[in-house]
Amino acid sequence: MKLNKILTLLLLLGSFVSFGQEPKRSEGAEAIVNAINKNTKGISFITSDTGINSELNEIGTTFFKNKYIILSNKKRRHADVTVNPITNTPNNNLYCVDVKEDGNLSFPLLFSQALDSENDEGSIGFSSDQRTIFFTQENPNNKQLFTLHKATLNEKDAKKWTNITNLNVVPEQYSAETPSVSPDGKKIYIASNIPGGFGGFDIYEATIAEDGTIGKLVNLGPNVNTADDEKYPYMSSDNKYLYFSSKGHLNLGGYDVFRSAYVDNSFLTAMNLGTDLNSRRDDVAFVMTSPSKGYISTDKKQSGNFDILKFEIKKQENLHFSYTVVEEVTKTPLPNATVIVTDEFGTKLAETQSDNNGKIKLALEPLTFYNVEVMKDGYETKKTNIATGDTDKNIALTQKKAVVTEDAIVIENIYFDFNKSTIKKESELSLNKIVEVLKNNTTMSITINAHTDNKGSETYNQTLSESRAKATYQYLLKKGIPATQLTYKGFGESELLEKCDKCSAKQDQTNRRVEFKIVK
User: Fold this and answer.
1) Which end of the chain is more exposed for a tag (fewer CB within 10 A), N or C?
2) Model confidence over 459-500: pLDDT tens digits?
3) pLDDT tens, position by position, 252-285
4) For the chain, which residues make up each domain, given as ranges?
5) Which CATH architecture has domain 30-315?
6) Per CATH, is 320-397 categorized as 2.60.40.1120?
7) How many helices and strands in the chain, by DSSP H and E?
8) Are 465 and 488 in contact, with CB atoms under 8 Å apart?
9) Sign of the alpha-carbon torsion through 162, 163, 169, 171
10) What is the CATH number assigned to the segment(s) 403-519?
């Protein structure tokens, strides 16, 4: 990780962090781990060996006709081992391996003699019909760079892969690496260090025309790319999530795997997949074989040689997260607020109401941003985003001002404890709007009219309305409003707005009201 990225994290976390070899975890490093794990609460990645790893290099790419294609620098049969003169390590070649029912890998065979070279081979991608391959090879003129090529499948040809073409997608002095094709075959994603990006290697996308030509490279933007390196893009089968490896973002060290949701032709903030999957070494080449299984390549031994691991995703059942709807200034909990939750893609997932303590409980998926809309009478509608890591978060609403008409001060309904005249805390906030109007208009006088529903006897309702009108009057006095500006009266059930024999809860709520009529 570059120095400026580390300094940024230090400023955010307020303590020292070190990413040396097996360091003693400091408070800063612990804070990074905690921040990462908040967003992965409820999900775990169980990793295990695939049975194919050796002391040499094995790194995954993608699938071709139910075979997993890997890169390895194992000795090729009947061929001399070639060595990269800069790294002094054997060059990687492409192999196809069998995938067993348990996900283990076996029987590596050279993938293609036509694509095999004396130089280093890199990652590959296939068109959706798997008849076009996009592959990278070491630039023979500069062994630190890779070039992107394509070839077409011809089963009748002895070499199988024909029409090998260098696509020249980047200038000769730059590198094109780790290509991946979208599930629909319409886009290719590559990593490149061409100028104009955010720094190091960035991930770009380009359209793939019907004739296989590649369009202009477009940078995926700051929610994916950073001042550090990003490589190994992989788009999920439903085209909703981009997985990639990055040395930037909120990172444990080396390359970590991240996920960014693809919404309305743009990428949302990337989220680290967590410490079950990522380490302080390089973790790359994430690919899924089903909604809960896949492969990742990791250099956990820090030997420069990768191992291919399989993973299985486990999710905790019935996991709920709590949030509290509050008034933004006093932080008073607000009951009966309507909360609508949609996912990143606009799909409505839940609609609920805050309880008497302003609490809501939501069942949320890990690694996901949610859009939340909160509505309550007398308050501005609040639209915000939450993630699964934002547990016990307050969602603050802004009060609307009272509306003053010719004959009344209009606010939201005033609530009392059941069958009592005790004003609820949330309604004290509402009455403060009346206080504000009267203090700004000292010559204004009002009468407080309290009404009930038609449940219970007329005598009981009359008494209850009078006590509630008086309680409201006394609250305003306590807040400094002179008695000369106030009168009050209880009307019981004599002036119902909803005249019904068997009223619904909503009709009863309409009838139970306190009105503030202007006398002068």
Assistant:
1) C
2) 999 999 999 999 999 999 999 999 999 999 999 999 999 999
3) 999 999 999 999 999 999 999 999 999 999 999 9
4) 30-315, 320-397, 403-519
5) 5 Propeller (2.115)
6) yes
7) 5, 35
8) no
9) positive
10) 3.30.1330.60
